[in-house]
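[09:14] KT: can someone run the structure on this one? pasting the chain below
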Amino acid sequence: MFDARTASLPAIIAHLQAELRAGARRIVLEVGDPDLGRGRYAGERIELADPRAQGFVHRPFRVWVDLAERLGLRLLTPRATTPPWIALAFEPLDPEARLRPTAEDATERYGAGSAFQRISKLEDPGFVLDLAEALARADLAPGARVLDLGVNTGDELALVQWLVPALSPASFVGVDHSASALAVARRRFPEAQLIEADLNTLPALGLGRFDLVLSIGTLHSPGIDDREVLRRIVQDHLAPQGAVILGFPNCRYVDGEVEYGTRMKNFCQPELGLLIKDVAFYRKYLQQHHRQVFVTGKHYVLVTGVAVPAR
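[09:31] RB: done, structure tokens below
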């Protein structure tokens, strides 16, 4: 009988993997209550007065959350058993329930009727906090013009407005090629200028310059020449003291869960090589054009470029 209460983490991982290979649909481990080790690091042993707690190994709850994510499992709500133990139940995620573009019309793959509309980045704590920090660096003044490339239904604009309430939606401009997504965005922001267009046609749109150019999870999309779009952003659309925030997805959505890291076919764990290459290019290009660059984020990596402070 496997005893997770005193086992090492590598042994626990091996046990979970063996159970999954055997076809288990639910795996329950009895482990030490993480609350009893507050302030301790994972793996530290704790001496408790209770004789049943001999060999108590502390692991913060985050360890179990991260382990479930890396093994493609859903961690259910912990249940109390006999103190000082709790029961953790794991269930394998359905890999076929991964969100994928399905629309035949390429412009509607992320449209209002797509499966991806189930996802709200506004419910990702990291994204909200990272974008808030990036916007603070941008230091937008009232009346600042904001351009959102790949505006979709307007979630990012909603967050920008919430985080910088002095901004007027009348100064928002958004571009997207999905008619259905733009219809939703227009209902949310009737004062904004929202344009149905391909990002590759930016030079023909005559948009002018902006104090903030924002594009989250769009420039990597198939069919977009991201290097050329970046050049147009910097050379044609960024005000001299303007800021740019560009977001790269670093996750995937499976069976109601978000999994960290970009994936390659036949790779079980994240492979970040292409992401790192793209981020490095964007960072260097913005620095060459007199921007101070910050790279932050987890599920979405944000590349923020702000004007270099005058000396």
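[09:33] KT: thanks! The CA atoms of residues 8 and 229 lie 50 Å apart.
[09:34] RB: yep, looked fine to me
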